Amino acid sequence: MKKIKKVTEKEEQYFCDYCKRKIRPRSCHICGKDVCTDCSIPDPDCDNDYPDWYCNSCWKIGEPHREKISELKENFYTEEEKLIKDWKKKTKEKK
């Protein structure tokens, strides 16, 4: 009688580099460590279903950088609005 061999794929497992809990694959966007939801934070400025995640350590270290990035973004949008307004004004003058 012929023996039937059952082949199973090994499932790759991931563990949080901080608390060692088994997790779904998720890495810190800055340092690349595997992180669980308790040891990380999703990017609060992200408005899609797949935000970048940051380990709590990188998030804390990044506070002054995030503040500066927010300022730059705000200034960018203010300047962009001014340029578009001027562009529209010049377009109307052309007519």
Q: How would you describe what is shown here?
A:
There is one protein chain. Helices cover 40% and strands 11% of the residues. The protein is built from 2 helices and 4 strands. It folds into 2 domains: 11-61, no CATH class; 63-95. The strands form 2 sheets. A two-stranded antiparallel ribbon has the order 1-2. The termini are far apart. By secondary structure, the chain is an alpha+beta fold. A hairpin with a 6-residue loop joins β1 (14-15) and β2.
Helices and strands in order:
Blueprint: E1 14-15, E2 22-23, E3 40-42, E4 53-55, H1 56-61, H2 63-94
Antiparallel strand pairs: 1-2, 3-4
Residue share in β-strands: 5-15%
The strand count comes to 4
- Major sheet description: 2 strands, antiparallel
CA-CA gap between termini: 91 Å
Main structural class: alpha+beta
Number of domains: 2
**Helix share bin:** 40-55%
Shape: elongated
In short:
The chain has 95 residues and is α+β, with helices and mostly antiparallel strands. Helix content is 40%, strand content 11%. Strand 1 (14-15) and strand 2 form a beta hairpin.
Features of the shown structure:
95 residues; alpha+beta; 2 domains; two-stranded antiparallel sheet; two-stranded antiparallel ribbon; 2 helices; 40% helix
